Amino acid sequence: AEAAAEYSSGSVGIVTKNLPEVAVPKDLAVPMLPFQKEGLAWMCHQEDSDVRGGILADEMGMGKTIQAISLLLARPLKGPCLVVCPMAAVQQWVKEIGKFTKKGAMRTLVYHGSEKGKVATQFKKCDVVITTYQTLESDYRREAHKHRVKCKYCGKLFMPEKLAVHQRYFCGPNAEKTKKQQKTAAKKAMQSMGIGNSSSSSSKEAPPTITNIYRDFMKQAGVDVKAKGYWNVMKETRDRLQEKSSSSSKAKTSEDGLSRERLNLLDKKELTDLCAKKGLDSAGRKPELVDRLMDFAVTGMAEAPAKKATLAMKLMTSVSPKAKAQAAKPGSAPGKKRPLLLRTSPSGSSKYQGVSHVKASGKWQAMYKGQRLGSFASELKAAQAVRDAAEETDRSESKKGKAKAAKGSAEPPQSRNGLARTVAQGKATATGSKRKHDEMEGNNYEGYETYEGAQLDLSESPLHAIEWARVVLDEAHRIKGRTNSTALAAYALQAQKGYRHLASR
Ligand SMILES: [Zn+2]
């Protein structure tokens, strides 16, 4: 009634008022409200148009189901119609068809559950077949999976085009970096640092958690950390290091250093003055000034970091002490400097690539190539960790490239680089990178097939083997995305007419 009132007030009605009226089907057992008649006229109009369907997005409670049923009755087509809906709505559809249509006007069948195979042969004897998104998807997936091939390296099954990606970037001897290699590398690194050796008694008792490893690190560096738990250990270490550096050296560069948090607290005049003091351009809006000062801090700190850093400080800021030691060796990487940190688009939570701010902890998380490098107290440190990881990769890649060139491989290394970088840049958040990684790896059970590339033989999927008169996707907004397997399963349905029946939530 409320909807009807809103309708008559003119706030809902649209151009549908001008459409030719469609007679209420005689088999409909209940009267239709004016706006429902209009919806019916609109749906008929849509079916006659080139798109042969549409999206009905009426508000909840306006009777989308009755409109859909009236359409099925008003424009009977040869063959059955398919209704796909969430599991919870199956019985509602059955009930409403029973309530809204005259007895025997619509022969209805539910295709769902373990017994579904038995009713699949009855489709053509019905007017309406009701099924669920789960059934639609699992039938589709069963057929799609028949096309998968085994990866000869890991034994996992992939769609052919995904296998190519998988082997190129993730698996096998030619992949950029396999998981196994990563694990082996980590093991080697731990051994070289003396962690996890059977001779070390402390490691024997303490499980190799990140905190214990870190505590071991600090002990070697002469800092005996007593706190328990990762964040407490980090905090204590930081406090003690600050104590140390403030007493041992008078140049407190880290205190003088500019942090984004601190800069944001300053007003514009103070920022302008600061810029002028540092010899920077002092024109512009506040965020620009902050950016400029941060840039200055980054390049300024990159120039002479080693002087004041204690061993513990080095361990704290560097992901790969080995790589740093290598870089420090004269002539090991001649002229190969990457003083500037990778910048990201302004939309991210950090201005540095691979760095994201974790609101809950207030820390900065560093990611590189889908790998978590750790959390850092400052944005800058996280960015430095990303840079170190990038440098290390550059080095190992140039090594690899040399080896490849020696072998006479024709593969251009840039393309690999390009893709790997896309993964790392992805979204600069843990979930973003992880998802991207998974998608490419084929771990995502959805999206293992592209709609465009779908050349599947679906003749053994009952829902896909027949041409439906109409397909009604109830609550179609539940299909998230266009490439997940539910969407692909829906796209693969064949129908003369199709229309989506959406709740406008
Ligand atoms: Zn594999």
From TrEMBL:
Residues 181-207, 238-258, 322-355, 387-444 are annotated as: Disordered. PROSITE patterns: DEAH_ATP_HELICASE (PS00690), HELICASE_ATP_BIND_1 (PS51192), SAP (PS50800). Residues 45-154 form the Helicase ATP-binding domain. Signal peptide: none annotated. Residues 388-400 have a biased composition (Basic and acidic residues). This is Rhp16 protein. Residues 344-353 have a biased composition (Polar residues). InterPro entries: DNA/RNA_helicase_DEAH_CS, Helicase_ATP-bd, P-loop_NTPase, SAP_dom, SAP_dom_sf, SNF2-like_sf, SNF2_N, SNF2_RAD54_helicase_TF.
